[in-house]
Amino acid sequence: MNLYEFVQPSDSITFYAEDDDVAFAVTMIVGNAHCFANRVGEDGKKTAVEGTSLYIGKVPDEIIERLKRLLDTRKDEIFAAFKTFAVCSPGCRKEYDVYTENSTNEERWKEWDDSKRTSMTNWCGYARSLKPRDENEGGDHA
Q1: How far apart are CA 65 and CA 73, in angstroms?
Q2: Which secondary-structure segment (H or E) carries 95?
Q3: I need a surface site. Which of 14, 27, 37, 130 has the fewest CB within 10 A?
Q4: DSSP secondary structure string, 34-59?
Q5: What does pTM read for this prediction?
């Protein structure tokens, strides 16, 4: 797994994804085409994830097609990445992972989020709430 930074104007947020393609899809879905992502290397060096950008107006067709293709082929990896969203900088991610048992302890995740989130925007809560659409149900799912 690679560590990524979800770049938006409020709190520092990180998440894990298998690769840049999954990080692209995750960022486009959670950020609604208004956020960026950077892959964070072991040395702390950040590399922009291709295709994540602030799209004003119409999102280019090739970006939409790429997202659709990834949802069709890598949906499980995308939804797994949503569950790793955390309000923390890359430098404190290890501390967060230990405290929340790698994002699996929901009570500790909420505790962490409540104590670290400084804005009204709840990107992590939104990301963690996303669930795959069951073909037999309606609703707001990806």
Answers
A1: 12
A2: helix 93-99
A3: 130
A4: S-EEEEE-TTS-EEEPTT-----SSP
A5: 0.90
